[in-house]
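Rotation project, supervised by the postdoc (A.L.). Task for the rotation student: set up a whole-complex structure prediction and record inputs and outputs verbatim in this book. Inputs entered:
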Amino acid sequence: EAGVTQFPSHSVIEKGQTVTLRCDPISGHDNLYWYRRVMGKEIKFLLHFVKESKQDESGMPNNRFLAERTGGTYSTLKVQPAELEDSGVYFCASSHIGLSKFQVYNEQFFGPGTRLTVL
Amino acid sequence: AQSVTQPDIHITVSEGASLELRCNYSYGATPYLFWYVQSPGQGLQLLLKYFSGDTLVQGIKGFEAEFKRSQSSFNLRKPSVHWSDAAEYFCAVSGLTGGGNKLTFGTGTQLKVEL
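Outputs recorded:
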C-alpha cells in the first residue's frame, strides 16, 4: 500500500509568486490534515478535511492560503501571493475516519513534506 | 489551549547508552499522547501512543514512554541506542474534537548518536 505522497519535495519561489502544494493521501483515508513547520519551531496544524469538506481550518494563517480537496481524494494547498514568512516544511497526513460512537483515534500517517523556500 | 514542551533541542548519546527524551504537556482534559520520529527525507513515523490504561507504553524500535499525570510528562526512553536512531523526535498531544484529531507538537529534539 502506498503511503502519503507530497509534491513537490522542494519549491523555491520569489516573494509575490504563487505556489501550489499537492498531497495524495493513503487510498480510503477520509481524514486529511495539513501541518507546517517553520524553521526552528514546532509543527503546527493548518487544517483538516473530512472527505471534501473542511472540518477545521483554525490553523490557516491568513487568506493567502487556500486549501481544496475536490472529490475527497487528493488535496492542494495554494499560497498566493507568497511571503518570506511562508517558508517552511508543509506536511500532509491522512487517517481513517474514527467510529463516532466509540470515538476511536485513528493514526495519522504523514507524508515526507514539501520544503518551501520564499526568497 | 493545549501545548507541548520539549526542553532539549539537541541531545548526543553514545551508541549503546540509554536515552531519555523529555516531554511536558498542557491539556485541559485527558490527553492522547504521541511520540513521532522523523529521519532525513522521511515523513513522521509514529513510535508509540498513550490513550488510557497502563501508563507505560511500548512502541516500535525498542522505545517506551511513561505517562505521569502528576508531572504532566510523557518521556520517551530506550535502554540502548543504536546508530540508526539518530533522527528528530517529536512529542504531540491530541484530544477528540468533532471527529478530528489535530495534533499539537513540541519543537522537537534532534538526537545525535556517537559511534
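Student's summary: The mean pLDDT of chain B is 91.
Supervisor addendum: Chain B is about 0% helix and 50% strand.
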